[in-house]
Amino acid sequence: MISKRVNNISKAYRKAPPATSSARSTYQSYADSLANRSSPTLLYEAPSPNLYITGCYILSSACFAYAGTNFYNTYLNPPEHLSTWIPVMVGGVCIAVGLFGVWSLFGAYRIVKTITALPRMSNTTQQSLLLRIDSAEMLLTLRPKPVVAPHHDVILSEFLYRAPTKSSTAEFVAARREEDRWREIAKKNLMTLPFRQASYWIWRGFVLMKNVVWKDDFIHVQVVGKNGTFKFDRNAAWALDDGRALDRLVKHRLEDV
Question: Which residues of 101-134 are buried (b: 16+ CB within 10 A; e: fewer)?
Fold first, then answer.
């Protein structure tokens, strides 16, 4: 009797489907879970790029003004007492400055405003999750068309998520004391308030020009099949899961930046 029961149990076990098959059928990747949603999912939203775009316009306008004025006065209409090599040298410098102005002007192009995960359409054979990249306006009205691409075709130059730095209690207390000290100085010295505000905005101007030239605060984005690269501010106004959601969906290898 015992042997018959064991044989019956073993036969029933062999006929039953494995437990892992149901788990595998219900498993969904993170990309599939976003694609199966009923509405688009915002992954990244950039801060306002208006200040950066204005800096690009200011720098490019200064370059064009310098190049045009000196090219006309020194190369096209050189003074009689100048040596022949000076207008040629100044003309070359003006051309270089003008090209730098063009480069600065197009620095305001393809600045990513939002990155959104699109839901899967029911009437299509879409398999991969699609990401839509919307760019900010350039020259007030010129805005690049949104780019829609599979998530595995979007490549970032580096990770968006940055782990917060752990500061000790002593460092936190020292920073708070320093902040309180400067707040007390600002309350007591009202006569120097205009100078402190002027120095602050001058410093902001230098930081802005530094970002326009070096673009340190940007992460470059490359889309497979698209020429050129996009860029977005690493200091996001808002990012899903502090940027880890976007990092899980895209690749992190950039070529030809």
Answer: beebbebbbbbbbbbbbbbbeeeeeeeebbbebb
Residue 107: both structure tokens together = 């620095």
The region of weakest confidence among 17-31, 88-102, 146-160 is: 17-31
Cα 219 from Cα 157, distance rounded (Å)? 6
CA gap 229, 154 in Å, rounded: 10
pLDDT digits (tens, 9 = 90+) for 114-124: 999 999 887 76
At residue 254, φ and ψ (nearest 5 deg) are -120, 135
Token pair for 5: 């029961």
Q: Which amino acid is present at 241?
A: D
What is the model's pTM? 0.78
Tell me: the pLDDT tens digits for 204-214? 888 888 888 88
Question: 142 forms bridges with which residues in the sheet?
Answer: 138
In order of 34, 53, 154, 167, 248, the CA distances from 237 in angstroms are: 21, 17, 21, 23, 19
Q: How far apart are CA 142 and CA 119, in angstroms?
A: 28
Cβ pair 111, 134 in contact under 8 A: no
Tokens 């309350």 belong to: 187
